[in-house]
Amino acid sequence: MSREPIYYLNGKYISKSKAKISVNDLGFLRNYSVFEFLRTYNGIPFYLDAHLTRLENSAKTVGIKLPNSQKMLKKIITKLLDLNKQFNEKKIHIIVTGGRAEDSITYQGKPTIVIMIGELIKNPPAIYRQGIKVITEDYNRNNSSAKTTDYFHAIKSLQKAKSKGAEEVIYLNNKEGLVYEGSRSTVFIVKNGKVQSPNHGVLPGITASVVLKLLQKEFTIIKEMVTPKELFDADEIFITATTKEIVPVVQVNNMKVGNGKVGSITKLIMSRFETYTENWSGKEVN
Ligand SMILES: Cc1ncc(COP(=O)(O)O)c(C=O)c1O
């Protein structure tokens, strides 16, 4: 049997089964918490600085003070990777909550921090080869620029998606006539060879930012909002996220995207990203 993972919890390195959080924690009681999710390639965290900066911004947005500096968090993560050598490629999940509140509502300024490490599970290869179906939902995330643990709507709508054979939900606002983001991903459309991704009211995706940097010399990039019509008329659509990387979308609701097959530009982008991550040594693109 493989060794239990070692987690970090409020200053201590402890085994997974001993990592316990109070039922009086504001994260549990009120969903008052933010998080980050990143992964390694070749054992090296992918864009750790960017993830830690986003964590700091998310915490600031909701009014939680991070218990550790970015420098300290990097040290802790390096140590955790060392303590969890049993895993091949690792997922790193950082959660910071409002901490304990005996009256169940007052933030005491003593946040809880947990860092969990585990084996990164690969996605089924078919989603990259064949692409996925998505459904749309009329919804906007609260505090959209922050990565909070508020995924109520995602959990609910993903069940609906699964029941329709879809893998992801794209949030749009019909009243505004704007497309925002996936429930757990950034949305891209390709039209006439140009690549476009919504630029406000969304979580700034780290995978998306890397993809855009990799493509900036080769493609015209449009960082502008997308309308539902543009989404439905797109030649190609793909979504990006840390665990999914780049996934082609071949159907939106009941409509085929382009000819219903994975598009050639999406394939090229996937291959550029794959080459970059296969050779990942910590060198960021600028
Ligand atoms: C709402 C939302 N948008 C976008 C993303 C993709 O972000 P990243 O590429 O940093 O994983 C996520 C990831 O979980 C997300 O939850």
UniProtKB/TrEMBL annotation:
Matches recorded under InterPro entries: Aminotrans_IV, Aminotransferase-like, BCAT-like_C, BCAT-like_N, Class-IV_PLP-Dep_Aminotrnsfr
Entries under SUPFAM superfamilies matching the protein: D-aminoacid aminotransferase-like PLP-dependent enzymes
Keywords: Pyridoxal phosphate
Cofactors: pyridoxal 5'-phosphate
Entry GO MF terms: catalytic activity
Pfam families, per database record: Aminotran_4
Lineage top rank: taxon: Bacteria
A GO cellular-component term linked to this record: cytosol
A single BP term in Gene Ontology: amino acid biosynthetic process
Similarity section: Belongs to the class-IV pyridoxal-phosphate-dependent aminotransferase family.
PANTHER family: AMINO-ACID AMINOTRANSFERASE (PTHR42743), AMINODEOXYCHORISMATE LYASE (PTHR42743:SF11)
Protein name as it appears in the record: Amino acid aminotransferase
Organism: Candidatus Woesebacteria bacterium RIFCSPHIGHO2_01_FULL_37_10
